[in-house]
Amino acid sequence: MDYITPIKNQLNEKMHEVCNIFMLIGTPRETPRYYNFGGFDDDTKTLKIKSTQNDNLFFTIDCKNLNYESLTFLTSNKNEFWQQFKDYRTKFLLNNYPTIDAY
Fold first, then answer.
1. Where are the domains of the chain?
2. Residue 48 forms beta bridges with which residues?
């Protein structure tokens, strides 16, 4: 199952935001390369993507409009989602911020 496509627009928007902030004021420990699955709030239907290096760095994705099958991964297939997000994140950074490692 493709978990990224239904939330890709939101991911792109949020990743651009964190990358721009990082390039302006970030430290190496705050690089978006460390962003990962941070949890899912079943009450608000929001996915949290957070830094593995700094718990204060995160963003949320609104998943209210996803169908039930798409939401299932957030509680049962975290490893599959993580792999897809990791691939997405790597491609996103290479395509949009290829010099981000230099910061």
1. 5-102
2. 39, 60
Mean pLDDT of the 55-78 span: 80
CA distance 16 to 12: 6
Q: Is 20 helix (H, G, I), strand (E, B) or coil?
A: helix
pLDDT bracket for residue 14 (50, 70, 90) = very high
Q: Is 2 left (phi over 0), alpha (psi -120 to 50) or beta?
A: beta
Q: How many CA atoms lie within 13 A of 93 on its CB side?
A: 19
Q: What tokens were used for 79?
A: 């490893």
Report the b/e string of 60-99 with b at 16+ CB within 10 A.
bbebeebeeebbebbeeeeeebeebbeebbeebbeeebee
Mean pLDDT of all residues in 13-38 = 92
Tell me the C-alpha distance between 60 and 6, whole Å: 14
